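Usage example:
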Amino acid sequence: MEKIRILIAGYGNVGRGVVAALKRNPDMELAGIISRSPDRVRKEVTDVPVLAFDDVAGFLSLKADVAILCGGSKNDLPQQGPWMAQYMNTVDSFDNHSRVPEYFHTMDEAAKKGCHVSIISTGWDPGIFSLERTLGSAFLPGSRAYGFYGLGPKGGLSMGHSDALRTIPGVVDARQFTHAVPEALERVRKGENPAFEPGDMHTRECFVVAAPDADKEEIEKTIKAMPGYFAPYKTVVNFISQEELNEKYKGFPHDGTVAAAGVTGDGNSAAIEYRCVWGSNPEATASVLVAHARAAARLFAEGRKGAFTILDIPPAYFSQYDREELLAHWI
Ligand SMILES: NC(=O)c1ccc[n+]([C@@H]2O[C@H](COP(=O)([O-])OP(=O)(O)OC[C@H]3O[C@@H](n4cnc5c(N)ncnc54)[C@H](OP(=O)(O)O)[C@@H]3O)[C@@H](O)[C@H]2O)c1
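Running the assembly step on the lines above writes:
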């Protein structure tokens, strides 16, 4: 059987994760990488072609079936997504939830025009959790599905919030761990379906390395007042050394659960929960993206075109097993 050939477009944490994930999927192979900084990537990757992003003839000659777009959601994907969809099938992890409808329509138009398949906004959230929220509300009508993050003792590392901390003057480096509020999760599990305010479900713990001459009190005040990011949340700020940050808080651990609870029949309790625990958020996200690339190749082989989300794809299309194997052992 011919392997599904993957092009990685953009090489950061998730791009690295895709390289690792492809090694665990024997029906797929890495055709090459494109990057805006190919010299940087060539220092790390030596066994496949690494080309400049705009070397269109070059990357088309690699005969990849699907491009996995690993650029940032804020600035890269809105521009790179529609551009790539004209040349090949794409999969991406666009995670700006409020802009998903707009991004979907842009990608749908571009992919239809290019006669390609573009699977957007997948990973774990959006992605797996989008599916679980949808299933929760379909199987338990009237329930609400809630996402809780950082259930373990260390919490979950939020890259976006860590980036936000690093923009504050006087902050040299920083990491932000999100913690779920256990009492809030308990209320959901009991089927109360509460109307939470922002800040009721999670707390935030910051580990900050300050410049030697920085005013730590001022930094803490600035963090706690940051609208959207920290202001609505109970936030703890810890100042630590760079060595301690590197040693104790390395890697990209994250976890979360989608919980929906309600009643069936005349009032019997019913609850659904789906938990993810990741030692590495970008590697796990990449693993999900790779399975979606398999689905993209299959949809394309059927002559489908346009944009898709995880909600539009039969789960069997993600699997490396064939239909008979799934029927016999996995259903
Ligand atoms: N849906 C989900 O569950 C989920 C989960 C996690 C992340 N995400 C999304 O995935 C996106 C990518 O995350 P990430 O952690 O991989 O971001 P990242 O490491 O910052 O990489 C983003 C882009 O920045 C460039 N880059 C990376 N390192 C660089 C360096 N040292 N010097 C210069 N350029 C560099 C790369 O583009 P070039 O190679 O073109 O330079 C890369 O594609 C995030 O924006 C987020 O939206 C989604």
